[in-house]
Amino acid sequence: MQVHLRQEFNPPQTGGYSEDMIPTVGFNMRKVAKGNVIIKLWDIGGQRRFRTMWERYCRGVSAILYVVDAADKIIDKSEALSKQAMVDHLGLDSIEDREVCCYMISCKESLNIDVVIHWLIKHSKTAK
Fold first, then answer.
1. Cα separation values, 32 from 18, 38, 69, 84, 88, Å
2. Which domains does the chain have, with CATH numbers?
3. Which of these, 56, 30, 61, lies nearest to 43 by C-alpha position?
4. Which residue has the higher pLDDT, 108 or 23?
5. I need a labelling partner for 98 at 20 to 30 A (CA). Which of 1, 19, 34, 88 fits?
6. 3-state DSSP call for residue 111?
7. DSSP codes, 66-83
8. Exposed, middle or buried by CB within 10 Å (0-12, 13-18, 19+), for 14?
9. Record's InterPro entries (predicted)?
């Protein structure tokens, strides 16, 4: 299973959140084994200059996780979108040819990381 993942998912593999995390420049890759599933994690930079490469890394993958970094308390700002507003804005409810879900996560607070990993495993080709 190949998954595109941001650095925010580092804690399950390394055991901790770091205040010194910086945005990904370019890409990083690592493999994580969970039961009989091997998850290949691609951490792809979100800066505008790297966005043209996203499609190249998305070919042939089983899942794509789009992570919005909320570590800077942006989620607490009045202009921040709620979970449902983000789903509506991105038109996620209109996608019918695949399963789509949206989770509010925080590696800093260890919120829903396990839920996302379990969702990935449940929907992997290996688990079926």
1. 19, 6, 22, 30, 32
2. 2-122 (3.40.50.300)
3. 30
4. 108
5. 34
6. strand
7. -----TTSGGGSTTSPPH
8. exposed
9. P-loop_NTPase (IPR027417), Small_GTPase_ARF/SAR (IPR006689)
Where does 6-82 have alpha helices with state H?
11-14, 54-58
From the number of C-beta atoms within 10 Å of its C-beta (0-12, 13-18, 19+), residue 124 rates as buried
The CA angle 34-99-47, to the nearest 5 degrees, is 75
Bridging pattern class, strands 2-4 and 37-44: parallel
Spatial neighbors of 77 by CB under 8 A, at least 6 apart, are none
CA-to-CA distance for 88 and 81, rounded, in angstroms?
10
Percent of the chain with pLDDT over 70: 66
Q: Determine how many CB atoms are found less than 10 A away from the CB of residue 77.
A: 9
Average pLDDT score, the chain: 71
- Amino acid identity of residue 128, one-letter, is K
Residue 46 annotated as binding site:
yes
